[in-house]
Amino acid sequence: MLAGAWPPPASGHIQPAAGVLLVSAAGFRLPHRSSLRRCLAYPEAIAAFDEDLQDALQRCGLARLAQQLDREAEWGSRLSPCERQRLAFARLISRWPAGVHWLLLDGADGLLDGTSALELHEQLCARLPPETGVVVVSRHREVVQRPGWRSFRVDPARRALREEERQQQPQQGPAGQPGGEVLELPCIGDAPVGLPGVDGAVLDGGASAGGGGPRWGDSQRRLEQSADGEKSG
């Protein structure tokens, strides 16, 4: 919703914001039969200098492709899913997309092992432009426990929990049982209130200064109920 991929709920607490880029587990969309150089620039017309592209590929574990910048191929099918995830990080490292101030990485490292995922995040964070924020949803403990990041659990009701609440929550249970799946949401920065388009009270567990603010989960449930109503109609 933050990136505009889903329509926001009617509550008004989550609204799409400009300058937000979403990278999912599939990585970036790759153009039909094109050079690797073009893939590293897409959707922009011009990529970075060759040495920057080659350096980014090497840093992201794709050194074998560093000398194939002008090779034309169906890279979307030629690369493995893991390599496509690495290529997405190389794209961001070689040249930051114009006009992007917030980056949402939703499972963008999910096919990699934890150590490799952490290395990619370290490489990316070391090259972020000033005044840029990153929100990461990852299954890797190595990533979510990275020093310097604030980590928030999100329960099955999609309510972000305060950091001090984390120790009081039960550990992950068997799949399919209440409270089983818990997402980790690391945020770069001192506070989550700067997240684009999201009411700080909602991210903070739903309790505003007055103590009775709306919850993220409530908005999600209203959205789901609306969708169910449309299906039944």
TrEMBL record:
Signal peptide segment: none
Compositional bias annotation for Low complexity: 191-206
Biased composition (Basic and acidic residues): 218-233
Region called Disordered, residue ranges: 160-233
InterPro entries referenced in this protein's UniProt entry, alphabetically: P-loop_NTPase
Source taxon at top rank: Eukaryota
Protein name, as recorded: ABC transporter domain-containing protein
Taxonomic source organism: Alexandrium monilatum
